[in-house]
Please model this.
Amino acid sequence: MILEAIITTTNSDGSVNVSPMGPFVENDPADGFELRPFETSRTFANLQQRPFGVLHVTDDAMLFAKAAIGKLTETPKVRSAEHNDAAFVLEDACRWYEFEAVYFETSEPRKSIRCKVVSAGRQRDFWGFNRAKHAVLEAAILATRVDFLPIEEILRQYESLRVIVDKTGSPVEDGAMEMLEQFVK
Model:
């Protein structure tokens, strides 16, 4: 299964990189998982330099949206991870899984990185996703594909997602959807 998550890695200057990513998880992320970043991604470059990071389970739809389109103007609050103090845990995530990248398969355009969890924790309950949060998450994923999906297809899907956000969302989801719509247009 693919679990939509936020990954933090460490940039070459020591700052935090925050990226949405859908790792492949068999049953429980604590058992390990596989990341599939593109070769051009900052996450891939960072993990090649420093093979550690943190996978976060969160219900923050705005964070997914901003991270997907490069609109994080401020790094969310973080603290050093337990195993490697140069890895960062998002303070507002529900759960986190600190990992070490133990195997890189780089022969395909979409890279594969096998990750071993070295520590994990729970910070708060998962509040949950309503339909609007799901719609924002789908819209954020579509926004990352503007370079290789027809824009007409993305805009058509955005029309359907907008209806869901209008019916079931809060001002946070509405703002996230508006930001993603502006980015795609």
About this structure: The chain has two domains: 5-122, 131-184. The first helix runs from residue 42 to 49. The mean pLDDT is 94. The chain is about 35% helix and 25% strand.
